[in-house]
Design goal:
Layout: E1 9-12, H1 18-29, E2 33-38, H2 42-54, E3 59-63, H3 69-83, E4 88-91, H4 106-130, E5 136-140, H5 153-173, E6 179-183, H6 191-194, H7 199-206, H8 217-228, E7 239-240
Parallel strand pairs: 1-2, 1-4, 2-3, 4-5, 5-6, 6-7
Bound molecules: NADP nicotinamide-adenine-dinucleotide phosphate.
Length: 247
């Protein structure tokens, strides 16, 4: 396999499971050294690191709650200490709390915005300070920003902010050749999507995609690979909806 990312160092937030783990594995398969960030499940993160190493890749796990700016700074400090540079940042970590607005608490709102919005913003700030020229930043939105499902207002609001950061910061980071794009998945087979839904609800949501199936993490990691690699050098400030034709 051609190692398009040989010599690159990537940091993937929320890489202990779900989409982030698959992204970390695929970046490593293509030659990048990868820092897998996680919040609370060291066993899962170490399992992901072991899987990468067993395939000949280089990876380490670093715990940090990206909702806290000091921890984001420590995460980047650790990346630079271990691998000496950073070329690719994937702002994948995210949570989803869905409730009718009547039931949404201040704590629900603050937690969602702290992880999805503040975490993404201050990770981009660290990248702006420390990333090598011609780096790649990939943010995470969602296709529900175009669906208007009841109960998703706060979550979709966090991702609307992320899409705006993406458009806005492309102009600010372009001088260093750094590109910044977002991926907006449709429903993907992970804990974040599956928890709390009945089989019927899942079937109904998945049935809205033109391609008629649920997305798998590798449907998304392939898109991230494109945005992280040399073939996307002329793409910046964009949001790519990888969703099987969901919207
Ligand atoms: N799945 C979908 O259908 C879907 C659709 C559209 C968009 N997305 C977006 O895709 C991204 C990944 O989602 P997923 O489905 O893979 O989620 P997931 O399976 O729930 O995994 C979430 C990951 O984020 C980490 N994380 C959570 N809070 C964190 C924090 N404060 N600091 C650092 N890491 C934290 C978790 O680490 P721990 O294991 O340590 O808790 C875990 O590795 C999210 O941004 C999500 O909004 C998902």
């Amino acid at each position: 396999m051609e190692k398009k990312l040989a010599g690159k160092v990537a940091l993937v937030t929320g890489a202990s499971r779900g989409i982030g783990r698959r992204i970390a594995e695929d970046l490593a398969l293509h030659g990048a050294k990868v820092v897998l960030n996680y919040a609370s499940q060291p066993d899962k993160a170490e399992e992901a690191v072991a899987a990468i190493r067993s395939q000949g890749g280089e990876a380490v796990a670093v715990q940090a709650d990206i909702a806290r700016v000091a921890e984001v700074e420590r995460l980047f400090g650790e990346t630079l200490r271990v691998y000496g540079r950073i070329d690719i940042l994937v702002n994948n970590a995210g949570i989803m709390i869905t409730k009718p607005i009547e039931h949404m608490t201040e704590a629900d709102f603050d937690r969602q915005f702290a992880i999805n919005v503040k975490g993404t913003f201050f990770a981009i700030q660290q990248a702006a300070r420390h990333m090598s020229d011609n780096g790649r930043i990939i943010n995470f939105s969602t296709s529900v920003v175009g669906q208007m499902f009841p109960g998703y207002s706060a979550y979709a609001g966090t991702k609307g902010a992320v899409e705006q950061f993406t458009r806005q910061l492309a102009k600010e980071l372009g001088a260093k050749g750094i590109t910044i794009n977002a991926v907006a998945p449709g429903p993907v087979n992970t804990e974040l999507f599956n928890v709390g839904k009945t089989e019927e609800q899942i079937k109904a949501i998945v049935g809205m995609a033109a391609l008629g199936r649920i997305g798998e993490p590798d449907d998304i990691s392939r898109v991230v690979l494109f945005l992280a690699g040399p073939d996307s050098q002329w793409v910046t400030g964009q949001t790519l909806r990888a969703n099987g034709g969901y919207i």
